[in-house]
Amino acid sequence: QVQLAESGGGSVQAGGSLKLSCRVSGYIGWWCELGWYRQTPGQEREMVSRISSGGTTYYADSVKGRFTISQDNTRGNLALQMDSLATEDTAVYYCSACSRVWGQGTQVSVSS
User: Fold this and answer.
1) What pLDDT, on the 0 to 100 scale, is given for residue 81?
2) For residue 18, pLDDT beyond 90
3) How far apart are the C-alpha atoms of 85 and 3, rounded to whole Å?
C-alpha cells in the first residue's frame, strides 16, 4: 500500500522560494507517475507538475520556468522546488502517486 507524506509548506513573500518534499512508501510501479497538485477553496484540484519513472516531466503553464519537480533514484522521495512565487500560488499542495493516492496536503501561502 502506497503512502505519501508531504512537508515543507509555509508562508513566504511574493518572489520568494519554497521547497516541498514528499516521502513515498510502498511499491510504485514503473507506469505510475508521481506528481504535485494544488487546490484552493471552492476550486477543483489542479495538476502542478508530474514526473514519470523515466524522468519525463510535465508542468502546468502557470508554473513553467518557476517550479522544478524531481525524484530520487529509488522514487522514495519527491520534491518540488518553487521559485519566484506569486500570490496566486497560494494553495494546499498535495503529493500524488498515479493520480490515485494522495498525501494529506501542505499549505503554501504567498503574500504580496
Assistant:
1) 98
2) yes
3) 28
- Which residues share a beta bridge with 11? 109
> What whole-number distance in Å separates Cα of residue 2 and Cα of residue 47?
20
Q: Give 82-86's long-range contacts (Cβ < 8 A, gap of 24+).
A: 82/17, 82/18, 82/19, 82/20, 82/108, 83/17, 84/15, 84/17, 85/12, 85/14, 85/15, 85/16, 85/17, 85/18, 85/110, 86/14, 86/110
Alpha-carbon span 91 to 94, nearest angstrom: 10
35 forms bridges with which residues in the sheet? 50, 96
Evaluate whether 10 touches 108 at the Cβ level (below 8 Å). yes
